[in-house]
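Anyone able to model this chain together with FE2/S2 (inorganic) cluster?
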Amino acid sequence: MRIYDHPILGGLREKRKVSIEVDGEIIEAYEGEPIAAALLAAGIRTFRHTLRENKPRGLFCAIGRCTDCVMTVDGIPNIRTCVTPVREGMRVETQVGLGKWRRI
Ligand code: FES
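re: yes, here you go
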């Protein structure tokens, strides 16, 4: 779900639609929006799983402080998706525990 016309912030400005890959699936997003916003709009709520108990985590503070939203982005783990803007062709992966660096 997206808010296209906010009563205080106004309407959603025209932004370029791009595609990003999330766990192997392509989703549409708006260039420059936070990755987390694109995921939520696509119905994705789980961004990572905890190390010890494998519990799901998602958006919590939404301002880059809590690290609940970290994911692996373009092979780099621990990226805070609530403050990282979408770029065309990004590869986003659900992270488990501390994440693993992928060789590029
Ligand atoms: S939701 Fe807290 S850092 Fe992203």
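The helical segments are 35-41.
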